[in-house]
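Subject: for your reference before the review

Hello V.,

The reviewers asked for a structural picture of the protein, and I figured it would be easier to keep everything in one thread rather than splitting it across files. Below is the amino acid sequence we used in the manuscript, unchanged from the supplementary table.
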Amino acid sequence: MPAPEHGGPAVTAEALPVIVVPCYNEQRRLDEQAFADMARTRQVRLLFVDDGSTDDTARILARLAQAAEGIEVLALAENGGKAEAVRRGLLVAVGGGATVVGYYDADLATPPGELARLTETLRARPDLAGVFGCRVARLGSSIERRAVRHYLGRAYATLASVALGITVYDTQCGAKVFRVNETFVDALSQPFGSEWALDVELLHRLLRGTSKEPGLPVTAFAEVPLEVWLDVGGSKLRLVPAMRALLGLARIARSRWAHERAGSGAPSRGTQAPAAPAPLHLARRDTDAATGGDPAGSRRKRA
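And here is what came back from the structure prediction:
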């Protein structure tokens, strides 16, 4: 197997998924025991990205890395925002040879067991390039979400669907996993335009492709309804970032429309873009139940 690039973690032939956990001033919300237990299951490796925190986050993460094998820390010298922290973490994971990567919110609003269902769905479905958690309140589930955030989220998801030209139920759930391929790697080559539209912009890049790599088909992605999700307090989203997220959607929509006018707007290899939005496939519940490199000025701590 080739030697790891970009200073990433050493991997074996059967590499575990590497999950990036961006952190900025998370000392009050980091559950050390829960993350240590996640790592000890040996189902995933965790790569925490300390995005220039000014509180005790760095000390807590260093303690975590010492406490459990399978936990590493990428410390960024300056705060660059969630989108850039995720991008740099994913680049380190890919450079280390990971074949499945993802990102996951540090507040554990999506429980570890739900993340495991996402990775298992991707493992069991070789036709998929990405699996996303989605928060669908329904009988038999426990999706605890404040009404205001729910309706704002529905409005944002509707606008995101328009921007992407497909129907996505929940773009902002903080649990997503991807199969590493050339299109995915190329999608990470440039910083994202908006910190809060990260999820939508990444999906847009994967569907559109680039001059180097073709886009992936809509059918390569699936949303998996979560069984449990808890609305954790302390979210950093405020009015100004929310407005920037909307502007980010507008830029994505303009990019897609310009791409289509240029005659290369198909979101899949050799197919035309749909005339009307086509829904992302919701993975069947019985299937679910089957269960850049290190940036300049950064420091990595290995378990």
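For the response letter, the relevant points are probably these. The chain has two domains: 12-107, 109-293. Residues 1-13, 265-279, 281-299 have pLDDT under 50 and may be disordered.

Happy to draft the paragraph if you're swamped.

O.
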